[in-house]
Amino acid sequence: TVFNDRHFSCENCDGCVSGGFDSATSQIVLCQNNIRHQSHMNRVVAHELIHAFDHCRAHVDWFKNVKHLACSEIRAANLSGDCTLMNEIARFKFGLKGHHQTCVRDRAIRSILAVRKVSKETAEKAVDEVFDACFNDLEPFGRIPHSKTDAKRAYRDFQNRDRYNANL
């Protein structure tokens, strides 16, 4: 069960970080001084909830295994809306073929570098080694929610996931 006053914290943060997941307290931190719009906050919350999901599901070793961190960052960038076409256009980044994957890779590397003191080469290597498996892991949604409609469909699919097996 998620409790707003227990699992979410609004704080002032250094630099341009928008949020984070504190695995020690299972708390999502929202950087109130760096979030200016509701849509940005929605993406930050979705991104950090993916980390929380991974923490519960996969027992991620956040501090000792950079591949674990890379996988969760790939999943969060892929599933949170960080790399939607509109967000990329707002960042003045344009591309057609494979652009979503490039965005996910780049944002995962940036996130690793923002939270761990590792070289860019180490972050790139970790992301590259786990990219395919983690990019294709769409849990808990089962699809990349590109829009609110997709997100609603994903939630409906999640609610009905056991319906087929229950009839066997």
From TrEMBL:
Top EC category: hydrolase
Annotated keywords: Hydrolase, Metal-binding, Metalloprotease, Protease
InterPro entries named among the record's database cross-references: Peptidase_M76_ATP23 (IPR019165)
GO cellular component, one term: mitochondrion
EC number, UniProt record: 3.4.24.-
GO function terms (MF aspect): metal ion binding; metalloendopeptidase activity
GO biological process, one term: mitochondrial proton-transporting ATP synthase complex assembly
Family affiliation: Belongs to the peptidase M76 family.
Protein name, as recorded: Mitochondrial inner membrane protease ATP23
Naturally occurring in which organism (per UniProt): Anhinga anhinga (Anhinga)
Underlying gene: Atp23
